[in-house]
Amino acid sequence: MATTLYRTKQGIVVERDGAFGLLSADWDALFIGDSLQRSLDTYESTHDDSARAAVENALLPPIGSQEIWASGVTYYSSRLARMEESKSAGGSDFYAAVYKADRPELFFKSTAHRARGHGQTVRIRDDSTWDVPEPELTLALSDEGRIIGYTVGNDMSSRSIEGENPLYLPQAKTYEGAAGIGPGLRVADTTLSDASAIRLEIYRSDALAFEGDTDLATMKRKPEELAGYLFRELSFPQGCYLMTGTGIVPGTDFTLQSGDRIEISIDGVGKLVQTVA
Hints:
CATH architecture of the largest domain: Alpha-Beta Complex
Number of domains: 2
Helix content: 10-25%
Strand content: 35-45%
């Protein structure tokens, strides 16, 4: 039974088989132990028009106190793109090596207050000249490191800054409005199929400016592997989110502009729509 949780100004809304209802729970508590499953086991499905209206008109990013982390170079296409952008700086070998290595690339992406949700604006840096969205399956991880759900992630990235030097990665990836997640949290009642498609469309003045797609089968590392490395030496008392890398990277002939509309959809998870401020 497909279940999605939404954070709204009216509280947590449960969508189950087209029916919407309010869940009496604390968002952060749902990431602790088996609290999410226990809360849903006692939830009685309802048809609440006000709950549906809250999702449509009062939606918040699906995040409480969770940190957002990210993975890099988990797709071959991402490996090629990173090697190309950093070639002049002599950093291309780093990306080739991490793609083949046992240890994945993991980095801190965002605190909750910097995250942007469905219908909200994301940003490009004022000091960057080449900017792209990166559509990513994003894992919701409990305090124990278990995958309890999924959401759609937008790992906004300054390719010009990262390309100057790999050591500039934190500036290229972590800034105000650089992390998009939403629209809700799809509960992990079943494992996502490797055939699940990820699609990216970017519209400029309502005209399609870029489109691309991939699927989870092309991701080199499994979600459980990435989660395991993240939790090796870190604790997350209220759980966390982990973006799993991108397989869609616009080329050198494209950069985001203010007003662009970014639409990211993942089969079985949802569709995240955001506008560049």
